Amino acid sequence: MKIGNLKLSWLIPVVGIALFAAGVLAGRTYLDLERKTYSGQAFSATLDRLCQSQRLSAALETLHDGDGASAAQQLDLLLCENILIINSELASTNDRERAYVRDIFARIAHQRPKNSDASAGNAQKLNNDRIEAEKILTRACVEITQAN
């Protein structure tokens, strides 16, 4: 009887300590995974910004070389791709952010110059992206008009 009570009084604290240690370990593992995920997302965003900066630099170099039409097409393609990326990410945002993005899209639609010429190299991609971006911007203007 005394040995049974001794085992029972010894077992409960050991199990409690083991459960506490397991909880701490699980929490630390979760936080490490969360940190690694955030780090990966930040690295990916940095690489995206680097790529866009390089494309912007190439467009400015083209403009500096005197080919304004080609530079305008490169910048328009970059803008259209950014509009498409932001629009594809809208599904995971809340209503306040969607309204803000819609307002920005409407502002872009009013300020964006219309480019009608396209070179042979980027013509198809530019046209497809431009058409999709124009639809998104037009939809944003219509939603803003209906909301007012």
Question: Can you walk me through this structure?
Answer:
This protein is 85% helix and 0% strand. By secondary structure, it is mainly α. It folds into two domains: 66 residues; 81 residues, no CATH class. The relative contact order is 0.08.
Please specify the SSE layout and strand pairing:
Layout: H1 2-64, H2 68-88, H3 95-111, H4 123-147
Task: Give the termini separation.
Answer: 82 Å
Shape: elongated
Count of DSSP-assigned helices: 4
Over all CA atoms, what is the radius of gyration? 28 Å
Low-confidence runs? none
Could you give the count of β-strands? 0
| Amount of helix | over 70%
Query: SSE order in H/E notation?
Result: HHHH
What structural class results from the helix and strand content?
mainly alpha
Number of structural units classed as domains: 2
Question: Quick summary of this structure?
Answer:
By secondary structure, this protein is an all-alpha fold. The protein has helices at residues 2-64, 68-88, 95-111, 123-147.
Quick tags:
4 helices, mainly alpha, single chain, 148 residues
